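CORE FACILITY INTAKE
Project code: CF-77B
Contact: R.S. (postdoc)
Sample description: multi-component assembly, two entities in total
Requested service: structural model of the whole complex
Turnaround: standard
Below are the sequence entries exactly as provided by the requester. Do not edit them.
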Amino acid sequence: MRVIATYNIKGGVGKTTAAVNLGYLAAQDGLRTLLWDLDPQAAATYMLRVRPRVKGGGKALIRGTRPLDDAIKGTDFDRLDLLPGDFTYRNMDLLLDGAKNRVRRLSRLLGPLAADYDVVFLDCPPSVSLVSENVLQAAGLILVPLIPATLSLRTLDQLTGFVADVDGPRPDVLAFFSMVDRRKRIHREITARLPTERPDIAAAAIPALAVIERMAVERAPVPVFAPRNPAARCYRDLWEEVRKQAPE
Amino acid sequence: MEARSREYVLAESGPQPPGRVRDELATAFTVEEDPHATRLRRMWLDTFDWRLYRAGLTLQHVSERGTGELVLTGTGGQRLTAQTAPGARSRWPCPPGDLPPGPLRDRVAAVAGLRALLPAVSVISQVREVRLRNADDKTVARIFLDAMSLPVPGCAPIPARLAVAEVRGYAAPARRAERLLAGIAGVAPSRQTALEDALSAAGRHALDYSGKVDVALRPAMPGADAVRAILLQQLDNLEANVDGVLHDTDTEFLHDLRIAVRRTRSGLKLLGDVLPGELTLRFAAEFRWLGDMTTPLRDLDVHLLSLPPMAARLVAADPADVQPFLAYLARRRGAERRKLSRVLRSARFAATVGDWRKALLVPHDARRVSGGPPAAELAADRTRRAHRRVIKLGSAITASSPPESLHTLRKRCKDLRYVLEFFASLHDPRIYRAVLSDLKRLQDCLGGFQDSQVQREEIQSLAAAMLAQQAAPAPTLLAMGELAAQLGTCQREARAEFAERFAGFASPAGRRRMAALTAPDSA
């Protein structure tokens, strides 16, 4: 089972839209896919039309009184399941802090799902916290959306440093440019240059298009309601790169 | 991913869900129906003896516009799939090892063993999906309408099926849909699976063949009637396997055909006295001839099946050295198969099975002999006699007895096994299973002993024949020598185990079980 996390310290950079679209494309590729919406805002859950509620809340899941398996919901798409977000996830740091193996708890909880899923996407809240540490322990690949700006590299390097501090096997890091505005020269320059200079940046980039914002209106992945839109093609290209890189 | 699904049948067949179904579901859900049905061709596959069905598995090859998928379903709803190459439909029968690699093939192969997968029945299916949505416009249950028809005109219609598929995490809406369906006239929970419905329409039923003795006898029925019923089932089995042997579908067809012949011969020997004397005489000779005709091919099958695992255990020789031997055996097998095919297409074979059937079906009042003792009495008497013979022969075997004495005992054990199986329906099932288990342990040991000896001797004579034909390179002959040595070791091990196995069989507890089985009031 591959575990892929969409993560960035910053918010509003396209983590959730990437997780939903890539999760959908993985399922379309025949992989049994689970998306765990770890963000208390539950945007991914909303986009997939599932109610943002887990019985017993994050506490029951983290303490193991309710197995993850029980909380999973089928989406409208074959092979794509969702572990919904819940507002109680805002306290997840505290819950993890009180758990045994506090930095490996999420990894332990995911273990029993290995026979049911080929790939799990973790859609993470923006922060540097115990949740993030857990995500780095659980994931084989950290997928980092970056807005093409001068500070992007600094953000990526900070995150790579954070990953380097992980005990035990460290996840791979793959960044990709998100919200790319082709009208801006700096966006064009950065997205053209950096992927050729750094192997940890994907060649595929996600444009800043209204169709991606429309996901919250359509409540569906882009390839479902706008399959021929350039954004759908870009997510497909990104999925191809991710699929090649994500270790089992 | 759907979790559980429950199926219903509709009183009428057709590709559209009836309006009343749509209307009833619309009282609780937003109903969204696919405008087009998907047209599929479904072919259910199983072994000739229904090994998958018996194991609670259903294997379908589902094809749609040139693409194909194998779908294996368990009774618990577990599902494995594998894509097949375009045109795979025409590849049946197929050995399980030739399925696309993956968990599906592994599961099927573990159950099917040596048996090929054959089409059981094929249908054209028109599947239409109906999605049930909640207030968030989220799909919370799916309904599939499956209108099946046989691709042959004039066959019985197959009732259309509705399956309610639960979306994971949404059990309640699926239950609600089921409650709504339950209240609709003309919609009833299905009592049969889709496979069983399709088979019924094709005039077949599952488990219509079993290599086992399967005759329901009554204790008080005349013994002669019981014997005729037993022998008639063996004749059915013999004839059922002929096509599979002629087409070389898998090696188990010949194996089962030979067992039917052997059971017939044992039946004639042990029970034939309740039938007219001339019948026994004529057909004992004919079935002996038939059995003899099948032996060379079966021996070659046994070699070809057992050699690869034995070759993998070679120590001094290389497994590849055995290849010329395997190729030689395969050539000989081809020749022996042609010979046996001529036998099975011969007038003598046709007359033997045809006349035997006529003789067994002679109406009761036309028979010139009485019905003999009641079946239960006959069963107890012949089982006791067969058991006594085994005990007597086995007790006389010592460490210095020649191999022939064990071979003779093995034959008598087979007689006992067959007579037990013939009358199984008259016995207490618990005691019967225990007695059979005692006997099987002994038979396994004797079988290991004799098969090793026969195979070892054959390898020696085949080596001589290959040498004479200059078909044996020196490394192959050396490898054959090592194979013969392996068989010699197996034979010695079986011989060393014999005393303990026989003592177990002939133990006071074993004898008590046999006495209980054949007691006058046990049937």
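Facility notes:
- Residues 93 and 131 of chain A are 6 Å apart (CA to CA).
- Chain A has 13 helices and eight strands.
Invoice: internal transfer
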